[in-house]
Each structure stands twice: as C-alpha cells, then as structure tokens.
Amino acid sequence: MFKKLLDKYDIHLPRYTSYPTAPHFSKAVEGRTYAAWLSTLPADVRLSLYVHIPYCMQMCWFCGCNTRIFKDYRLISDYVDSLLSEIDLAVEHLSERPIVQHVHFGGGSPTILSPADFLRTMAHLRSRFTIASDAEIAVEVDPRTANEANVAAMAESGVNRVSVGVQDFNTKVQKVINRIQSYPLIKNLIHLLRSSGITAINIDLIYGLPYQTAASVVETIDTAVTLAPQRLALFGYAHVPWMKKHQLLIDSTLLPSTAERWNQYETAHARLKSYGYIAVGLDHYAAPHDDLACASRAKRLKRNFQGYTSDESLALVGFGASAIGILPQGYVINESGVTAYKRFIRAGMFATCRGLVLTREDSLRWAIIERLMCEMAVNLDVMAARFGFDSTRFLPELDALAELEADGIIVRAGRIISVTQECRPLVRAVCAVFDQYLKPGIHKHSKAV
After folding, report:
1. 3-state secondary structure at position 334
2. What is the second-level CATH architecture of the domain 41-328?
3. Does the global pTM surpass 0.90?
4. What span, in angstroms and rounded, lies between the C-alpha atoms of 349 and 320?
5. Are 321 and 302 contacting, i.e. CB atoms less than 8 angstroms apart?
6. What's the pLDDT tens digit per position in 337-396?
7. Which fold has domain 1-23+359-449?
8. Which terminal residue of the chain, N or C, has fewer Cβ atoms less than 10 Å from its own Cβ?
C-alpha cells in the first residue's frame, strides 16, 4: 500500500520557491517594466540583494544551477565589471539610498572570484547602498576554490555566513557526480573560516544520488555534524536532464528508487533531529538558537529563490546573468546567457528578459503555498481574509484535497490544512492543489519525492 502511495505522488512538481513559478514568466515584463517598479519602491524600503556568479572550476554533474566553466579568468573579471554597472543602473532608479538587510552571493561558485574582485564588488555595494550593521552577508562556498586569500577577502568585506557545498563525503558518490573533495579539505576550510571570524556555517547535503543508501547518507550526516554547522540543508537530487544536459553524464540506472529515496530522507531526518537540529520547512535543519529556527518557531519563516530564509525585506534585487528579482508588483529575471546579459548592461539597459505581474489572486495563492512550504500547515480562512477574499472560493481545492486526506497525507479541521509528519516530503503535492498554472504531465520540474 505504501509503495502505491509513493508511486501515485512521485510526479513532476515545482519546488515552489515562488508562485507562479519561473516557467510561467513571460516576455511581457522587460527592462522598462523593471525600471518602473524600482522607481516606485518606498524611500524607507529595506532590501535584499542577490549577486549571481555563473562560473565554476568544473561542472558538477548533479548541478541544476545556471553556471559554466571558464577558461580564462579575464572573462570573470569582465563579468564583474558588468555586475558593477548593473548595480549603478539599479541605484539610478531608486528614489533614495536604501538600507540593505541581506546580501547573498550565489552561483555557480562565488569563490571563483579573485580576492580583489570580491573586495571591489562588496566595496561597490557598500558605496551604493547602506548595508545595515546587522545585515546578513552570505556566500556560497566551493571548498575546492576557497583558499586563505578568499577567506581573508570575505572576512574583510563583512561576510558573516557561508554555505559550504559538501553534498556527500563518500568518495564513490563524489566520483560519480564529478565532485571530488576530501573531508580534511572541508574541515580545514571551516577552521579557516571560523578563525577569520566567519562563524555562521551552513553545510549543504544531497540525498538521492547514485550509490547512496540510507546508511551512507547517515554516515555523511554523522561526519558533517562533527564540523558543528549551525544549519544543514538536505536536498533531494533533482534529475532533470531535459533541462540540464550535463546530468546525462549521470547513469540514471544508478539512481535510487522512489522508495529508497524516501527511506534515505526519513532516516536522515531522524538522524538530524537526534542531534538536536530543528526541522525547518521541507529540507533545512538549524541549531535551536539559529535565526532560521527562531523564525520557524515564530511562524515568520519565508521562502524565496534562495530557499528558506528569515529575511522579511520588501524586495529582493538580483544582479547578474539569470538573477531573479522580487518586487511588490511581481518577478523579474535577467538573461541567462552571459554574452546577452553583458550586451544589455553595456548599452545602459536592464537585462530583464522575462517576468510576471502578480495579481491579487496570485499573491493569495503564493501566501497559501508559502505557509504550506514553511509551516506544513495553512488556515485558508485567514489567508483569504488577508487578501480580501471569501474562503468559499476554495471549494474546488477542498474537493481535490479530499483524496490527499484519504491517503493520509493531510488532515483537515474545517479550512485548516496540515501535512502529516510522516508525509512532509509530499508537501509539494499539497501545494500543487492551489497552483492554477500547473499543467500535469509536462516535465518542467523534478519529481516530488
């Protein structure tokens, strides 16, 4: 019976880092639209900034990010020039010098930047924005490229949180995903970070990779915990070779079955909780006093394109190729190709290629989906009232939820919906009930389990 349940719900669904999701963005939103949206942000707005670095030392075959391998560092330095120009362009359209509460460098591998380029990027941001004294400045770190000089540059620039990409400590798994990095390498990097004053350490892990078993995933967790991270992310591998061609280099016959993936998740989840980490949303775990755990307990956890966050800023401004921005009016995304991105920026124009104007209905449904993703529960009456709707509009969704309830995935008390503890990995199937854009059977997304 349980296998039938897994097979039934192991379907292609969005990760719901936004709603509507990125495949539904259109060319109707472009640079002029984005410029107008920036110009209407309140003078006292608090912002988050995202900086995308789309370069890596080598391609990891599991990767789902927008990245490319570089052959000449001058390409990267030239890209940084365009980043700084885009920052200037955005600031020109803001009415005041806004306060920034969060800065996140993602990729790709931000640590591919030379110390000089990282320093000048952070200096430029500080010259154009007011970075709050308590701002979180976070960087995604590749242990293979982060050396002592990189760490010194991050510390000098005020970086106070890093996410270390580990994925798995097992050498057999590392080889099959083309990500070779030893435990001593990672341990030494984390020691170096802490010695430099960067003490908020996240570790990113993945389950569902070739050669992984529930036992081997637990071994990786046990090893990761010896490094005392404040947070761990445990992502399910998203095998989407129709979108990311390099994933074809992974032999799909070696991937674990749906039942084995579920077993890996459940076993890892129990192990992390046994170490005292708090389960946050679907795939994050945080030490009890970490900001993410506190936000989760206070029911103010948020979700955006970087995943789970305690960030409550009104707008997220993205810089770089494929960077996504979130403003009150909607979403914008830059050209993903570096050449096209630089061409727009050098012409003095935003590189916005697609986006979406949010309707009140969209905002309501995103609020519902976000609460489900963050809290595993939602009160439809409360959500509808917040946006000026009557919750009777959800009668069709309640009918659809009846099947999920019968299968034991959710429980209902009136219009309060809660995902059962044992079915947390299936929360995206619950969110999909409220997704008016989703077309079943079209493989634009990874599988739910």
Report:
1. strand
2. Alpha-Beta Horseshoe (3.80)
3. yes
4. 13
5. no
6. 999 999 999 999 999 999 999 999 999 999 999 999 999 999 999 999 999 999 888 989
7. Arc Repressor Mutant, subunit A (1.10.10)
8. N
